[in-house]
Design goal:
Elements: H1 3-34, H2 48-60, H3 65-76, H4 83-106, H5 116-129, H6 132-144, H7 153-179, H8 189-209, H9 219-252, H10 262-312, H11 326-359
Length: 364
Amino acid sequence: MTVERRERVRRAGVAVLEICAVAALYFGAAKAGLLQQLVRGQVTPLWPPSGIALASLLLRGPRVWPGIALGAFLVNVSLGPSLPAVLAIAAGNTLAPVCSYVLLRRTGFREDLDRLRDALALIFLGAFTGMLVSATTGTGTLVLAGALPRADFWPTWSVWWTGDAMGVLVVTPVLLVLRSARAPRAAPRSRWAEALLLVAATAGVGLLQTGRTPLLFLGFPLLIWAAFRFQLAGAAPCALAVSTFAIVAATEGSGPFAGRDLLTDMITLQAFNGSIALTALLLGTVISERDATQREIAQACRQLADMATKIAAGDHGPMFPDGRHEEGARREKGGTEREGHEEEPRTTTKAISSSYLRRRPPTG
């Protein structure tokens, strides 16, 4: 077996493992999301597989789309009314993240999420636009198959679309952050203590959200704290935790969701989750951009200080790339030009003398 063939076999094996891993993650996240279903046992206010699917495409490329299709089929085969309907719903669940991926790539999206334009692209293209495909395909399939009354099309469509969009807004940033997460070097103990305090505060606010008192607004100070102190690495997991607690409260009918109908609960829940996700993404990316700008300004100030120190020490000319000063280079150039001018008259005199001797007639 040649080296090229072994390399192709290795790459094919890695691709198969990635596809299987994506399918397993999709299936597991779908089972977790179905625990909080609100419509027909398969429509939930937060669909984590959509966020996992988009993140896998962004991180591993479009070659993992069969894993998304396989996971979607395995999830819906036990839920769909018929095999054609299952295939149609699985196709919609696969095409939606693929469309989001294509739209994000066309806008120059970067997985680091360190720019405001990347956050806006993920919100409006990755979540709101791309997930229209899965919601429309899935709800339309259920209506055509007779598993859903026509009158329930728009309520089910709205729950489906917002659930998929929330999955992208809440889950995808967490996975993108985990990809580049590194343990801080030489971090002081106070920093670790602050992180643990943030985790404890998030858990405490979650318990209050699932209680009888409507205290959903307590999640926003936590997001601001996490974003300012830990950027998106802290804001994204905090938003996921706060949204999960709110969904639990909605399914249990506690807090602000007690004694209300399904439509009112969905409007309240998705407005809250959308506000949480938008706040985390926008605030985290803006602060990351601010920190990057401050680092660039600090580096420019250090360079200016070094130049000022050299000028004060007597080096008054700017430096060339080879390390010479402009004044020294000018002197070298002037010396070369003077040498050239000195050579030229001697050469000209010799030429004139030779010409004169050739023209002189012989004497005697």
